[in-house]
Specification:
Elements (H helix, E strand, L loop, with lengths): L1 E6 L6 H4 L2 H8 L4 E6 L12 E2 L9 E2 L1 H11 L6 E11 L2 H7 L4 E5 L5 E2 L2 H5 L3 E4 L9 H12 L10 H4 L23 E2 L2 E2 L9 H10 L4
Parallel strand pairs: 1-2, 1-6, 4-7, 5-6, 5-8
Antiparallel strand pairs: 3-4, 9-10
């Protein structure tokens, strides 16, 4: 998979994507993540990417021209799925991540300032996604969250496929959305807090039933 990210703050991504599972996925060529400075597609000496909204209003909007130029440059084969981060977009879920991990090329546009010229929503973005019903300073953190969620679902990225199958927000056979069951490790007793006895019983059927019962929402 190839992932391109358009942002005004490329430096924000290095610490997140260079380590752990995402860093390893890049080193092992499961994914190529490229961070691009949006200003590189802006005209003029000062590479201006924002302007005041027509009709008045507070704040500045990201202009459509540099975004459109960047998408045309990055999506020459016309096969990329373009995603705009926006607080008013569709809520990103595990199910959405499972669909997006099958794409060959994703392009993320990180929103900033008061927002983005709405023609980006109307004519450029294939999907407008949000990570929750709250407002952040920009789209960089939501993009990090979505990329992390998507990349770890690419077959082979995680060492054991079952680590994905039974994770939180996976879907059971009856299409119930599950969160991962509670898990415990040694010692069995700490500060008089005990591990549930069924997990120590060795009875695999009862343990499986306990896990299923404690996973359903």
């Amino acid at each position: 998979m190839k992932i391109d990210i358009l942002t005004l703050f490329p430096e924000m991504f290095s610490a997140v994507f260079e380590y752990s599972i995402i860093g390893r996925a890049q080193k092992e060529n499961y994914v190529s993540i490229n961070i691009h400075q949006l200003r590189n597609w802006a005209d003029g000496k000062h590479q201006k990417v924002d302007d005041r909204p027509f009709g008045g209003g507070v704040g500045m909007l990201l202009k459509i021209e540099p975004i459109h130029k960047a998408i045309k440059s990055l999506n020459r084969n016309q096969n990329a799925r373009v995603i705009l981060t926006d607080a008013g977009g569709e809520i990103f879920t595990q199910k959405k991540a499972q669909k997006l991990c099958k794409e060959k090329h994703l392009i993320f546009i990180c929103g900033r300032y008061e927002g983005v010229d709405h023609r980006v929503h109307e004519h450029i973005a294939d999907e407008i996604l949000s990570v929750g019903e709250f407002v952040l300073t920009g789209g960089e953190i939501p993009t990090m969250i979505m990329v992390d969620t998507i990349v770890r679902l690419i077959p082979g990225v995680l060492r054991k496929e079952e680590a994905v199958l039974y994770e939180s927000f996976s879907e059971s056979k009856d299409q119930t959305i599950l969160t991962e069951y509670p898990q415990y490790t040694r010692p069995e007793i700490y500060n008089n807090w005990r591990v549930p006895e069924v997990l120590l019983s060795g009875d695999h059927k009862k343990i499986a039933e306990w896990k299923a019962r404690n996973s359903k929402r």
